Amino acid sequence: MRLTILGCSGSIPGPNAAASGYLVEAEGFLLGLELGNGTLAQLQAVTDPFDLDALVLTHLHPDHCADVSALTVLRRYHPAPPYPARPRLLPLYAPHDAPVRLANAYAPNETERAMTDLTDVYEFHPLRAEAFRIGPFDIVAAEVYHPTPAYGLRISYGGRILAFTGDSAPCPALNELADGVDLLLAEASWTDSAERPAGVHLSGKQAGELARDAGVGRLLLTHIAPWTDAGAVLAEASAAFPGAEVVKQGAVYDV
C-alpha cells in the first residue's frame, strides 16, 4: 500500500495547508480518505480526480468533507469527462446521513436545497461498524468517540495493515483498530491538558500511548491545528513512542 498526504491541517486549513485528505493506493486502485477544505487542489496536483476509484469520509465535519462540493462540480460539469472508460458514479462511503448533509452543503439556497440530489454523481454506501471490501482493500470500520457519528478504519492489503483513527478521543475502538498494525495514522490535534474538552480529539501524548500499547510498527501524526505547536505534539508522542513522525502535505509513505 502507498499512502499520500493531500492535507493534514486539523479543524481548519492553515497557511498553504489543506485540511484532512489522504490517498491509499494498491494494484492501481486509488482510494480517497477524507476530502476536507483545500484537498481537491492538492489532489489535482498529484492525479486526475477522475482517477479516484472510491472515497471514504469518516465523518461529516467540514475539515473532512468540504471539498466534496467542489468534486461534485468537477464530476457533474467537466466538459470532457473520461466516460465511459470509468464509471460515472463514484462510490462514496460515509455516515448514513451523508446524501442529505452533502446535498445541503452543495445547494446555494433553500429552493435548490429542496431539489438537490447528488445520486447522479455518487453511489452512496452507509458506513457501519463492520468489515467490508473496497477494490483490493479489506476494511474494518469502527465507531469512535467524537461529537458527531465518526469512524476509524483498519485497512488491509497484501499482509500489511494501515489504521486511521479519524477524529476521536481515546476509546476502546481505537485500541482494537490499531492493534499490531504496520502503520498508524493518528490525529493529534493538541498537546495534553486537563483543560482540553473531553470526547473530541487525541493529544500527542494520547496518540503516542495508543501506538505503544497497540504495538504498532510506525506512528504518523496528523490533523494538528494551525494554532497548535506541532513540535510539542511530536515531543509528547515521542516520549511514549520513539520514532513518531508528523506527516507533511504531499509526502508519500509506503505501508
TrEMBL record:
Any Pfam family the entry gives: Lactamase_B_2
Membrane-spanning segments: none
InterPro entries on file: Metallo-B-lactamas, RibonucZ/Hydroxyglut_hydro
Gene3D superfamilies: Ribonuclease Z/Hydroxyacylglutathione hydrolase-like
Domain Metallo-beta-lactamase span(s) in chain numbering: 18-205
SMART domains, per database record: Lactamase_B
Name the UniProt record assigns to this protein: MBL fold metallo-hydrolase
